[in-house]
Amino acid sequence: MSSGETQKKHHHHEVFSAERAGHLDTRLRRFLYRPDRLAGRFAKPGDRVLDFGCGPGFFTREFAKRVGDGGQVYSADLQEEMLAIVRTKMDAEGLAGRVTTHRCRPDSIDLPADLNGTFDLATAIFVVHEVPDPEKLFREIAGLLRPGGTFFFSEPPFLVPGSEFARKIELAKSCGFQPGEQSWYFVNRAVTFRKV
Known about the structure:
Elements: H1 3-9, H2 27-33, H3 35-42, E1 48-52, H4 60-67, E2 72-77, H5 80-92, E3 99-103, E4 119-125, H6 134-144, E5 145-155, H7 162-174, E6 177-185, E7 188-195
Parallel strand pairs: 1-2, 1-4, 2-3, 4-5
Antiparallel strand pairs: 5-7, 6-7
């Protein structure tokens, strides 16, 4: 399948507005999604983590706790308003030194080239459906991860049908990822990849 054909089958959704950020980080969502367990499963002390599409820092907080003072979390988002919320939260919780916020471009993660091959973990949780070019995103994430690094990818089924999610798995494989466990992350489809 050509990149053009893939693009036609990717349904690009509107970016979740920072004005509604409060809906993304609630006590109920923390209970349902258990970001602490996700961080405990994938991140370890000293890791460098990319939290792509971080929003208001729902997962950033737990990754920052997990990586410790020797690790670093890069929280990347398109909206500066989301990143400001992340910085405020991390300051309040004493985690600011472990978190670097980064504003993406609409068409690129746009992290410095000297970070390529240095990340242990990257996540894209409930966000790839908002990205105009998933293939470019997957290639950028593959470039940022070290060999053997982990990429956790999850999408909500009410926005991304199973057939589209399956195509995204194939697309990620073509970008240098080996799929591992496919699972449900609460009520959302998820897959864990390894960088080849």
